[in-house]
Amino acid sequence: MAMTKFVRTTSENADFRNLINALDDDLYKRNGEAQLQYRQYNQVDSIDHVVVVYVEGKPVGCGCYKRFDAQTVEMKRMFVLPEMRGKQLAARMLQELEQWAVEEGNIAAVLETGRRQVEAIRLYTIAGYSLTENYGQYIGMEESICYWKELK
After folding, report:
1. Could you give the CA distance from residue 147 to residue 127 in angstroms, rounded to a whole number?
2. Residues forming beta bridges with residue 80, ordered by sequence position
3. What number of other Cβ atoms are within 10 A of residue 142's Cβ?
4. CB neighbours (10 Å) of residue 25?
5. What phi-psi label fits residue 69: left (phi over 0), alpha (psi between -120 and 50 degrees) or beta?
6. How far is Cα 14 from Cα 135, in angstroms, rounded to an integer?
7. Is 9 helix (H, G, I), strand (E, B) or coil?
8. Phi, psi of 96 (to 5 degrees)
């Protein structure tokens, strides 16, 4: 595969900001107006744990995590450009985020995805995440699916 680099950064990274704009566009196309209710939960104004994936120097994917509780992180804003999907970039990015979380002393991760995001559901299932009850702001949201995983 072409030269691939996983860069740990923060939400101040301009490439990350551009990629999450593309993610929001993708989600709006999939979910329409229903996506607008999630906007408030996807704020990334000050996230210290961001990974941006570069292939041949071009930013093609991103993900991040934020604190969920004392020993758990919440994975957020996972995205790979459509033309770069199918190359295991999201799986490798998720592994990088999980490793970073473990290095910081975390023992578990949670996340939420939408029922229409079949690629994400497949990724998280293969990566060892288990379905869990919807948590926090996702309780009662029929289009949300939540997952949990013990980190090692």
Report:
1. 11
2. 61
3. 8
4. 11
5. beta
6. 30
7. strand
8. -65, -45
Q: Which of 66, 85, 65, 75 is nearest to 22 (CA)?
A: 85
Structure tokens at 59: 């930013």
The two most distant CA atoms of the chain are separated, in Å, by 43
Contact 50, 97 (CB under 8 A): no
Q: CA-CA distance, 83 to 114, in Å (whole number)? A: 21
Q: For the chain, what percentages of helix, strand and coil (3-state, to nearest 5) are there?
A: 40, 35, 30
Closest by Cα among 103, 98, 100, 101 to 127 = 98
The length of the chain in residues reads 152
Nearest to 22 by CA among 65, 62, 75: 62
Condensed to tens digits (0 to 9), the pLDDT of residues 49-68 reads 999 999 999 999 999 999 99
Helix or strand (DSSP H, E) at 132: strand 130-132
* pLDDT tens figures, 70-95: 999 999 999 999 999 999 999 999 99
pTM listed for this prediction: 0.88
- Measure Cα distances from 32 to 29, 111, 133, 145 in Å: 6, 21, 25, 18
